[in-house]
Design a protein that fits this description.
alpha+beta; 3 helices; 2,3-Dihydroxybiphenyl 1,2-Dioxygenase, domain 1; 4-stranded mixed β-sheet; 24% helix
């Protein structure tokens, strides 16, 4: 139980960092010159590269995400971790799927999908929902529309990981 709580806290920290990064929050850094003096104001480039999740079968999960969500494998590793870095079609973000045998894989099916989910922007929420249900996904939170007019749904992939699909009335990030 303690391990699961620590994993959940770590996942929430990563998701908060991702949200801040996508919202345009950067960090100002102090840069030191060769003579040891510092000057302020230089931007330290920070860009979210990937979020990693420990899963039972990274290879099968990567194949499902690539086959159903147009993602692509960028890098893969050997057993026992069987790590797969998968990227969205635009190369905007990656997920690292891996299996860390010393640690228990979190039971994603028992997690509240509002505590952890992977979100994808789409043009048609209902269409992607039909496609993914046919491919083995299940509904976690049914389609709804927010007060801002955004349409969204949260599904669970075949491994129980919550995946959200949303169409925003005003996209927060550009499609690439």
């Amino acid at each position: 139980m303690v391990c699961r709580a620590m994993v959940n806290r770590l996942l929430m920290t990563v998701l908060v960092f991702a949200t801040l990064t996508f919202a345009g929050c950067g960090t100002e850094s102090m840069t030191t010159k060769d003579d040891g003096s510092a000057f302020a104001g230089r931007k330290n480039r920070i860009r979210l590269e990937h979020v990693a999740i420990n899963v039972e079968d990274p290879a099968a999960m990567a194949e499902w995400y690539c086959g159903n969500l147009d993602m692509k494998i960028i890098r893969e590793g050997p057993p026992p971790a069987n790590m797969r870095f998968i990227s969205d079609a635009g190369g905007n973000m990656m997920l690292e799927l891996y299996n860390n045998p010393p640690d228990a894989v979190p039971d994603y099916r028992l997690m509240n999908p509002l505590s952890l989910h992977i979100a994808f922007m789409v043009d048609d929420v209902k269409s992607i929902t039909r496609k993914l249900i046919a491919a083995g996904a299940t509904i976690a939170v049914d389609v709804n529309t927010t007060p801002a007019g955004d349409e969204l749904i949260i599904l669970r992939d075949p491994w129980g990981v919550p995946i959200q699909f949303l169409k925003r009335t005003e996209p927060m990030l550009p499609y690439k």
